[in-house]
């Protein structure tokens, strides 16, 4: 997390230091990864724990939209947009919430400004191609 010259806070994709913002105060004594995410235009914070392998027919999952410039290579590695927060379709308390997230890659052009998309609705209405991946995280 960094503070710019106007006093505003900007977050990298994930941080490992303490976080203090209007939305969250977290001392992070163990240096866990904490990352800002968008939900319906609001910033929330999550602790990404990594890729999980599930049976999507048996396990409930929610959607995470990941903005990328493209997918390359035989395994479709994403080229993420630097500075863009992930976008969740739900948060705890929502009926469709799950701590398991299925990636949906939103392919944006090179002139895309990070964090222009801030909600599932923004992603769906953007006109950008969205590819549902078989990648799940917790």
List keywords for this structure.
single chain; 138 residues; mainly beta; eight-stranded mixed sheet; two-stranded antiparallel ribbon; 12 strands; 41% strand; disordered N terminus
What does this protein look like?
The chain is globular. It has a domain at 49-137. The longest helix is centred in the last third of the chain and has 6 residues, at 120-125. With 138 residues, it is mainly beta. The chain contains one helix and twelve strands. The model is unreliable at 1-10 (pLDDT under 50). Strands 5, 6, 7, 8, 9, 10, 11 and 12 form an eight-stranded mixed β-sheet that branches. A two-stranded antiparallel ribbon has the order 1-2. Strands 3-4 form a two-stranded antiparallel sheet.
Order of helices and strands: EEEEEEEEEEEHE
- What is the helix fraction of residues, given as a range? under 10%
Q: Number of helix segments?
A: 1
Radius of gyration: 15 Å
| Poorly predicted residue ranges | 1-10
Total strand count, please? 12
The average pLDDT score comes to: 85
Question: What's a quick, concise take on this entry?
Answer:
The chain has 138 residues and is mainly beta.
In terms of topology, how is this protein built?
Blueprint lengths: L1 E2 L5 E2 L8 E3 L2 E3 L8 E5 L2 E5 L4 E2 L9 E11 L4 E4 L5 E3 L12 E7 L12 H6 L3 E9 L1
Parallel strand pairs: 5-10, 8-11
Antiparallel strand pairs: 1-2, 3-4, 5-6, 7-12, 8-9, 8-10, 11-12
């Amino acid at each position: 997390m960094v503070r710019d010259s106007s006093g505003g806070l900007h977050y990298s994709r994930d941080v490992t230091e303490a976080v203090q913002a209007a939305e969250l105060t977290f001392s992070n004594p163990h240096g866990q990864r904490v990352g800002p995410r968008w939900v319906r235009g609001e910033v929330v914070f999550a602790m990404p724990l990594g890729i999980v392998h599930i049976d999507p027919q048996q396990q409930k999952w929610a959607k995470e939209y990941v903005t990328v410039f493209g997918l390359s290579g035989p395994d479709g590695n994403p080229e993420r947009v630097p500075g863009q927060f992930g976008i969740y379709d739900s948060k705890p308390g929502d009926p469709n919430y799950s701590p398991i997230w299925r990636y949906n890659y939103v392919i944006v052009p090179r002139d895309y400004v990070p964090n222009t998309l801030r909600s599932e609705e923004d992603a769906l209405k953007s006109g950008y191609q969205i590819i549902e991946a078989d990648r799940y995280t917790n």
